[in-house]
Amino acid sequence: MFEINKIYNESNLLTMDRIPDSTIDLIVTSPPYNVDLGNNKYNKNPYDLYNDNKEHKDYIMWLETIFTKLYQKTKSGGRCVINIGDGQNGRVPTHSDIIQMMTKIKWLTMAIIIWDKNNVSSRTAWGSFQSPSAPSFPTPFEYILVFSKDSRKLQEKGETDITKEEFIPWSLSKWSFTGENLKKLGHPAAFPVELPLRCIKLFTWKGSLVYDPFMGSGTTAVACLKTGRHYIGSEISLEYCDLAARRIAALNNGDM
Question: Measured between alpha carbons, how far is 232 from 5 in angstroms, rounded to an integer?
Answer without folding.
Answer: 5
